[in-house]
Amino acid sequence: MTTEGKYYHPILSAPFVTNIMNTTYDMWKMGWDELNGGNISCLLTEEEVNPYIDITNVLRTIELELPITELAGKYFLVTGSGKYFRKVIEKPEECLALLRLTEDGKSVELLWGLSDGGRPTSELASHFMSHTERLKQDPNHRVIMHTHATNLIAMTFTHDLDEVSFTRTLWQMCTECLVVFPEGVGILPWMVPGTFEIGQETARKMSEFRLVIWPHHGIFGAGKSIDEAFGLIETVEKAAKVYHLVNAHQGGAKQVITDQELLALAEAFNVEPSKRYFLN
Ligand code: 2HA
Ligand code: ZN
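Above: inputs. Below: predicted complex with Dihydroxyacetone.
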């Protein structure tokens, strides 16, 4: 396709590309993805990709630090390393990458994107290992999203980092929270980002949670779609914001949603929060 001499790749009209372009911009507008903060990866099927791209035309092969055999042959749309979420909507072919894992799982083949010679997200290990784990829990799983949600980061300084207590506080801040993430949130200790170790620990938490907090850094969310992963993170971030507003008030909360009320909510919405959140 050309308009006034400019070449537009047909993949720019693919829903999976337009959705990631719009969402990265939304996330930047939320104030979550300053500079090059944040990364997204979206699992795609060959049937989805095929109409837009010649899947036999490999532009580059990029070796992985460690093989991911569980995802061999699978397709992913990911954000690029060092790319700005603010700019994805303007320069998608530079900021995004359509990848396919090789059959031995040792490399990824670039089929489209990273047009300036860039690399996939620095958190690729965390993404791939988390996808592997989420797919074991839910065959319809598709998306891993990492972002620097502001109020949530702040909350990791002022709240204790125990998963049960942190989850309970979030649930108590907004009535919808327990319904949206009845499994609670996982929390890692502070770790160096971009490493195999943080990837492994994030994935381990992903066997139980769709939301994993990296204290003083941000959050990982998993979902069946970009919209679901975004919505999960948005809900936690909202609760964290309410938490700060409540605590900025002299004397803090005068009342919270009680355990009895949380349990009534779980029953009404047919969700089953783990017993460990209800100690008494
Ligand atoms: O992409 O957010 O954790 C930059 C990051 C690394
Ligand atoms: Zn980050």
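The chain has a mean pLDDT of 96.
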